[in-house]
Amino acid sequence: MGLRKYLDSLEKHFQKGGKFQRLAPLFEAADTFLYTPGKTAQGSAHVRDVIDLKRVMIWVVYALLPCVVMALYNTGLQANTMLAVLGRTSVEGWRGTVLATLGVAPAPGSVTACMVHGALYFFPVYIVTLAVGGLWEALFAAARREDISEGFLVTSLLFPLTLPASIPLWQAALGISFGVVIGKEIFGGTGRNIFNPALMGRAFLFFAYPSQISGDAVWVAVDGITRATPLAEAADPLMSISVSWLDAFVGIIPGSMGETSALACLIGAAMLIITGIASWRIMASTVAGMAFLSLLLSLIGSTTNPMFSLSPSWHLVLGGFAFGTVYMTTDPVSGAMTEQGKYLYGLLIGMLTVLIRTINPAFPEGIMLAILFANMLAPIIDRIFINANIRRRLARNAR
């Protein structure tokens, strides 16, 4: 109650005419993050629900927590495993200083050691993303005299999870800047953007700095160590997948920090579906589209391209397919809105993912580009079904 009264006493300074009125979006963001909004609709024409936009975004953050836990553990596991292979008992640089201060040895068999070591890679990227992206959000909100969008709570967590552990912090700052400004704010802000901002930032980094965002050397957070991701191994005719399906499903494989665990994504999917936050239709149809085309290509076969024979079960657990299906395709702003359109939207993403992975050996991961392409077509897909419904109603009324 004391904090509530204190915030109420400060509110007048941020209202119109107050000395801090330009900072009103920042005050509102902090106030409504801690408490539900004090303003309520009184008219009978309003639909009432216990969940507002901020609570929706908070639930998505909760659903991402399993992926965050796996990001910490797996990043540390990959680094500690490589250190053990090299016979090293300590970590170089400031991370080694922190581990030594905490008395944590980089042992791959210790869950605590892996979690702490992984945290030293993930949280700096997350903090930079939150600070830089949040600054852009605040600047645009202040310029438009609008409240800060709650959607950034999700974007700021999604973006670092899609990055490799070795990403330079300045590139993370540049990527989130591109995603927020070019992917969202120039369209008018949250609710008006065509593309998913986190994916826009990820795509920008991939094409602008491919050596730091892709390639064998970036997937293990130890300097001088190179290791291909299992998806890259599957696309190479001279290699075979070096991990078991179960390891890939759990997520203890090289890859982007938060995208490797299909198990964590399934837990998040259950949370989003049970709470009604995300569309199960999009998730299910994305998996169906992937399964259909991968099975079709396996029937066609290829003597030179091993991706033709990759089964749907492997497509599901490799790369960022599960992560993209659960958290990216279901974006309520950039995805399809109509119930029938959601099926077509998901099918398109699933099939495009397999097509890109199979036909383009230089870019074995396909879910990112597939979702961005489907984002562009989502308004057209919705318009098709809306027009069809209008025609049916007109025909019914004409009888």
Radius of gyration: 23 Å
Number of helical segments with 4 or more residues: 17
Structural category is: mainly alpha
* Residues in helix, %: 55-70%
Quaternary structure type: single chain
Order of helices and strands: HHHHHHHHHHHHHHHHH
Termini separation: 62 Å
Beta-strand percent range: under 5%
- Write down the overall mean pLDDT: 87
The low-confidence runs, each spanning 5 or more residues with pLDDT under 50, are: none
**Count of distinct structural domains:** 3
Q: How many strands? A: 0
Query: Which outline best applies?
Result: flat
Describe the largest sheet: none
How would you summarize this macromolecular structure in one to three sentences?
With 399 residues, this protein is mainly alpha-helical.
Layout of strands and helices, then pairs:
Layout lengths: L1 H13 L9 H11 L18 H34 L6 H10 L8 H34 L7 H10 L7 H14 L14 H12 L1 H4 L16 H6 L9 H6 L11 H13 L5 H21 L11 H6 L3 H8 L10 H21 L7 H32 L1
Helix pairs in contact: 3-5, 3-6, 3-12, 5-6, 5-7, 6-8, 7-8, 8-17, 12-15, 13-16, 16-17
Task: Describe it.
The chain is an all-alpha fold and 399 residues long. It folds into three domains: 9-33, no CATH class; 52-222, no CATH class; 240-399, no CATH class. It has helices at 2-14, 24-34, 53-86, 93-102, 111-144, 152-161, 169-182, 197-208, 210-213, 230-235, 245-250, 262-274, 280-300, 312-317, 321-328, 339-359, 367-398. Helix 7 (169-182) packs across helix 8 (197-208), helix 13 (280-300) packs parallel to helix 16 (339-359) and helix 16 packs antiparallel against helix 17 (367-398). It is flat, with a radius of gyration of 23 Å. The N and C termini lie far apart (62 Å).
